[in-house]
Known about the structure:
This protein is mainly β. It has one helix at residues 2-15, and strands at residues 23-35, 40-57, 60-73, 78-91, 103-117, 121-137, 140-149, 155-163.
Amino acid sequence: MFKKLLATLLVFSVFSTKTNATEYIHGIGAGFDGLNAAGAGTISVQYLGRVNFVNMSDDMSIGLQFTPYVGYNLGVSGVAAGISVGPEFSFGPAATKDTKAPIGFGISPIYHFSALIAGGAVTGHSAGFNAAFRFAAGEMPMSVNTNVLLVNGTSVGIRYALYF
């Protein structure tokens, strides 16, 4: 009983520091997603958005991230569009509006919806994860992200993003 009470108090103290601090973090990026073993890929421009629901400190948050993109698929010479959505744990640059940390990271399980338009529309969905290494150049937070989609076809992507 004492262990459960101690664990409950510990969780409450960690997550109750700034739970009413809902804020919006956003950025823009460019990336490349390789598709399966065929080697075809998509070059894209992305918008990176996150709504923080819990700010555990100035340098740490939990929120819902979403990354819509539009690009060009090199394998079938067509337009590609989609969105990745998932909860994200962030630490360091771009974790909150008030962070001063010079380096950090973000990690998120994601669910991905996509469409490919080349002579006809093909849609799909998958699940996987996203991991970002974040750093700050002066006051400008940046990140290098990689995402891996594992369900309904394997895909690995990398992108560079600026947050503002």
